[in-house]
Amino acid sequence: MSYAISDALQTAIYGALDAAGLPVFDALPSGTVPDVYMTLGPETVRDRSGVEARVAWHDLTVSVVSSEAGFRGAKHVAGNVCDTLAAADLTLDRGVLAGLVFLRAKAARTSQESVRRIDLIFRAIVEDDAQSVD
């Protein structure tokens, strides 16, 4: 297995969050940013292939960032992210999503005291159905 499915996985997750009306960006937007928004962030991928299947675990981060007072607004959006991804039927351009589970979250103030950030960590289990290009 390789990192080859990462783009297809990110595209599917972005599409599901965007379709749900959640303000999601691949990188910090330029100009005026919404009071609450999300970014797709760090990802760690581990090969879990066996004899008959090419499988990988993608531990990926969706970050909810808020300049609103308190954590309540950010927690509401974070809950919507979890609900959206739990209910989503994600179809990948390459590979098959075998499962997507929530692992953990961390809520904290950033170095800018008025900004809150909640990092949601999910594990996607994907199987590559493309032919090897050896």
Strand content: 35-45%
Report the mean per-residue pLDDT as an integer: 91
Strand order of the largest sheet: 1-2-3-5-4
Low-confidence stretches: none
Taken in chain order, the helices and strands follow as: HEEEHEE
CATH class: Alpha Beta
Indicate how many domains the architecture comprises. Answer: 1
Q: Could you tell me the CATH topology label.
A: STM4215-like
**Spatial extent as radius of gyration:** 16 Å
Question: How can the largest sheet be summarized?
Answer: 5 strands, mixed
Which geometry do the CA atoms define? elongated
- Helix/strand-derived category reads alpha+beta
- Number of helical stretches of at least 4 residues: 2
Give the helix proportion (percent range): 10-25%
Distance between the termini: 12 Å
User: What is the annotated CATH architecture?
Assistant: 2-Layer Sandwich
Gist of the model:
This protein is of the alpha+beta class and 134 residues long. It is built from two helices and five strands; from the N terminus they run H-E-E-E-H-E-E. A five-stranded mixed beta sheet has the order 1-2-3-5-4.
Task: Provide structural commentary.
With 134 residues, the chain is an alpha+beta fold. It has two helices and five strands. The protein has helices spanning 6-19, 72-87; strands spanning 24-25, 36-47, 55-66, 96-109, 116-127. The mean pLDDT is 91. A five-stranded mixed beta sheet has the order 1-2-3-5-4. The chain has a single domain, classed as 2-Layer Sandwich (STM4215-like).
